[in-house]
Each structure stands twice: as structure tokens, then as C-alpha cells.
Automatic annotation (TrEMBL):
InterPro entries assigned: AA_ABC_transptr_permease_3TM, ArtM/GltK/GlnP/TcyL/YhdX-like, MetI-like, MetI-like_sf, Solute-binding_3/MltF_N
Record's keyword annotation contains Transmembrane helix: yes
Organism: Fructobacillus durionis
SMART domains: PBPb
Record's protein name: Polar amino acid transport system substrate-binding protein
Positions of transmembrane segments: 284-312, 342-366, 454-473
GO biological process annotation, one example: amino acid transport
Domain ABC transmembrane type-1: 289-473
Length: 486
């Protein structure tokens, strides 16, 4: 179904980290997975609401809610267990990691129980098997009457997905390409960059229903239903929970409730596409703007405070202080922020269960601090040694010299560089969307999935980011002029 390659790689790295740290990568021998949920009275389920009709967002009575077939399955499981359901949204590549590290009880997000994934997590019985299709342009329907006609064509699939694996196996003579998001693939198809896009049948049906210029053809794959259907993922050794969930799935499949769930999803999708104007989704963008601003402001404040501390430690004559500071700065600057965000959320989360938003703020602040420290160090080193000597001749201590003479002048010199770091934090904080923080990028993907519009949501978010950074730039320039005047 859908799983990105980078998500799989990061999941593997984090699991090794958890195992080395002694975290929750595997369940204990004494399985209490079901009892823990009943004692808590809450079933925590990870999902990625950008994949209709499996899971997506819809506006119901003025409120944005998670809907879709997988959400209905989760509701039924929670009902049978007699507990409340708590949906935890995050990027798809993080859902299985959330299961492995104990952040959630299970993941229900259209995931296939392949042998590779069974090495990391346990799966329930299959609750849905819809088959595979190709989306093509309606004008090409005569050219591509069936999947055999696609040999030699340009085929796109989601990165790391089952469709990508199947296309490599069955269409070796075709030009294959992949992208992270299905909406991007569909846009590439409609713009003529691709001839076909491999997706699941329900997904294909949803796109055809909402795009008059698209049609679907059967993929014709010969598949093992035990690996290609949708199943619920649990942490390794969660036998009691898996047994309870399988009872719910048996009930769902026996009564063919998935058909009803898909019909209900179709209704929500139809409601979503009645009005796909961006003004209808202003609350999504507004909430994303608020969270993006909150993360940036708090991260910058704490980043500066920690950055000053780090640079003082690095400049210290005591190696016990300078070495840790240098090591921290080099490690943070030498690793991607994506890995740092995942490490804070899932790694530290094995000790302290941090919410996604708080984890995102901490990760961005810690990352920014390393860069701020180097900017401040450059400003301090740019000052003439005479400044320090003059302060000492006046009887100022080293602390007072740094506080009243060196740092004020250094900040005046580095203000433009510091301003660039502020702006970078605003833009780079978008990476927190991978753990389910509803920032602008997260809301962008939700709106694209709901409206089937590829470009309009991107333009809106670009405008919002531009307004934010332009305003910040003007404010920083104002204070720079004030400092220069003083």
C-alpha cells in the first residue's frame, strides 16, 4: 500500500537504537498489551490521514475529523474492547516506528503485512483486500486498454510502496519513477509526465470519481492475498491484543462491513469535493500557521539561550566544558533534522512520553542552538582583542567583560546572520509534520488529499510562508538599523 523508503530506513535505525537502549522495540515476554489498554481505557491508533478512502480528513459540523475505512475499523475495535479511541496522526513512514517504540498501541493505515515488515511488527488478520489498478488519462483509454499495453510506458508509483515493488517485477521494460505522495503522481499523470500511476483499486476509484479526465484499468497482477491486503500492525509479542483485534476483524469481514465503510467514505469524499475552493479550508491553513509560528518562536528563543551557553562552553579553557559543546555542535550540524525529530519523539519518548508538538519544538530548538552557537562564536572572534584588554584594564571580571562588552558588540555584528537563522527556522520547522504536528506542510498534504487539487494548496502555503518570512525580514532590518544608529 503506502510506505516510503526513507521511512523504512529511519524505522530500522530507530529500532536498532531502541534495542541498544533497552526501549520498547519489542514487547515483554509477559504479554500485557491488551490489559494495558483496558486499564488505560484508551486505544491509541496511529494513522496518516492523506490516503482516501482509507483515511483522510473531512469537515463535519464545522470541525475537522478523521474519517475513512480504516478509521471505521479502528472505531469498531475500540468499541469491542470497551475503550475510547484516540487517533494519532503522523507521516506514514512514522506509523510503524510509533508501534515499535510504544508511542501507540497499533497502526491502522492501509499497511500490507509483508514478510519484511513482519520482522519488525506483528499483524492482525487481513481486514480488506481491494486489488491493484492503474490510473491513466481518459484521452489515453484507447491506447492503454489493459495493463499489458503499459509495457514500455512511463509508470509512476509511490516510493517504497507495494505498487513500486510490483511495477519493478512486472514492468521491467517500462520507464519507472516514484514520488513520495500520491497526489504528486496524479498531477504528473495529468500534466503528461507519466502515462500511468499504480495505486490500489479503492484509491483509483476515488480519483476517477473526482477527476473526470482520469480512468482506471485493472493491473492484472497475480498476488498473494496474505501479503497484499490491509492489516493492523502491533508491537512484537502483542499476542493478547492481536487475538482481541482478530475477533473484531472476523466480525467485520463476516458482515462485510468494509463495504459499508467504503460507502460512508465515498459520501465524505463527495462532500469534500463539492467545494474545493481554498477559502473553505481556511481553518486548516490557519491552524497550520499558528503551529508553525509557535514552533518557530519558541525554538528561536530557546535556541538563542542554549546557543549562548554552548558557545561559552566551547570557548572555555576547561576541556570538560569545551569538548561536550564541540561534540554536540558537530553532531547536530552533521545529521539531518528529520532524524533528530524522530529521535526526540520516538527515542526520548521511550523514557518520557512527549507529545508530538512538544517533541517538534524541542528538536527544532536543539538544532537551531548548534547553528546559533557557531554564529555567535564567529561574532566574538571578529572583535578586536583590544576590547577585552580595555575591559580588564577597567577592572571588569571575565564574566562582566563577556556580558557587558563582548556579547553586545558581537550580537550587533552577527544580527544579519542571526536573522537568516530565524528565517531558516520558520521554513525548516516544516519537517515536524512527519510526526503528526499539524503545521503548514501537514495541513497542505491533508487539503491536497481531500480536494484532489495538486497546485492550489501549494500556492496558498507558499504565500503564507512568504508573508511570514517577508514580515520577519522587515522586522529584523528595522532592529538592525536601530542598532547601527545607536
Amino acid at each position: 500500500m503506502k510506505k516510503t523508503k526513507i521511512g523504512s530506513l529511519l524505522a530500522t535505525l530507530l529500532v536498532f537504537f531502541m534495542m541498544a537502549w533497552g526501549g520498547h522495540a519489542t514487547a515483554s515476554a509477559d504479554d500485557n498489551s491488551l490489559q494495558k489498554i483496558k486499564d488505560a481505557g484508551v486505544l491509541k491508533v496511529a494513522t496518516s490521514p492523506d490516503y482516501p478512502p482509507f483515511e483522510f480528513r473531512a469537515t463535519i459540523d464545522g470541525q475537522s475529523e478523521d474519517v475513512g475505512m480504516d478509521i471505521e475499523v479502528a472505531k469498531q475495535i475500540a468499541k469491542d474492547l470497551g475503550v475510547k479511541l484516540k487517533i494519532m496522526n503522523m507521516d506514514f513512514g512514522s506509523t510503524l516506528v510509533a508501534v515499535q517504540t510504544g508511542k501507540v498501541d497499533m497502526a491502522i493505515t492501509g499497511v500490507n503485512p509483508t514478510e519484511e515488515r513482519r520482522k519488525s511488527v506483528d499483524f492482525s488478520n487481513i481486514y480488506y483486500n481491494g486489488g491493484q489498478s492503474f490510473l491513466i488519462q481518459k484521452k489515453d483509454a484507447k491506447k492503454y486498454k489493459n495493463a499489458k499495453d503499459l509495457h514500455g510506458a512511463k509508470i509512476g508509483t509511490q516510493t517504497g510502496s507495494l505498487q513500486q515493488t510490483l511495477s519493478k517485477k512486472y514492468f521491467k521494460d517500462s520507464t519507472l519513477s516514484s514520488m513520495e505522495k500520491t497526489p504528486n503522481l496524479v498531477f504528473a499523470l495529468k500534466s503528461g509526465k507519466l502515462d500511468a500511476v499504480g495505486v490500489e483499486k479503492p484509491v483509483a476509484a476515488a480519483y476517477v470519481e473526482n477527476n473526470k479526465d482520469l480512468v482506471a484499468i485493472d493491473a492484472g497482477y497475480k498476488l498473494d492475498k496474505n501479503e497484499t491486503g490491509a492489516a493492523v500492525a502491533f508491537a512484537k509479542g502483542s499476542d493478547s491484543l492481536a487475538a482481541a483485534v482478530n475477533k473484531s476483524i472476523d466480525k467485520i469481514t463476516k458482515n462485510d462491513w468494509t463495504s459499508d465503510y467504503l460507502k460512508k467514505s465515498a459520501k465524505y469524499m463527495k462532500d469534500n469535493t463539492k467545494d474545493t475552493s481554498m477559502t473553505r479550508y481556511w481553518k486548516y491553513f490557519y491552524n497550520g500557521f499558528l503551529n508553525t509560528t509557535l514552533i518557530a518562536v519558541i525554538a528561536v528563543i530557546f535556541g538563542i539561550i542554549l546557543g549562548i551557553l554552548l558557545v561559552l562552553m566551547k570557548l572555555s579553557a576547561w576541556k570538560l566544558l569545551s569538548w561536550p559543546a564541540t561534540a554536540y555542535i558537530e553532531i547536530v550540524r552533521g545529521t539531518p533534522m528529520m532524524v533528530q525529530v524522530l529521535l526526540i519523539y520516538f527515542g526520548v519518548g521511550t523514557i518520557v512520553n512527549l507529545p508530538a508538538l512538544l517533541s517538534g519544538i524541542i528538536a527544532v530548538a536543539l538544532n537551531s542552538a548548534a547553528y546559533v552557537a557557531e554564529i555567535i562564536r564567529g561574532g566574538i572572534n571578529s572583535l578586536d582583542d583590544g576590547q577585552k584588554e580595555a575591559a580588564q584594564s577597567l577592572g571588569l571580571s571575565k564574566v562582566d567583560t563577556m556580558r557587558f562588552v563582548i556579547l553586545p558588540q558581537a550580537f550587533k555584528n552577527i544580527w544579519p546572520s542571526l536573522g537568516n537563522e530565524f528565517i531558516s527556522v520558520v521554513k525548516e520547522s516544516s519537517i515536524v509534520s512527519i510526526i503528526g504536528v499539524t503545521d503548514l506542510i501537514y495541513e497542505l498534504n491533508v487539503v491536497r488529499a481531500d480536494t484532489y487539487r495538486a497546485v492550489a494548496p501549494i500556492v496558498v502555503v507558499m504565500v503564507i510562508y512568504f508573508i511570514m518570512t517577508f514580515t520577519l525580514t522587515r522586522a529584523l532590518n528595522y532592529f538592525e538599523r536601530k542598532m547601527n544608529h545607536d
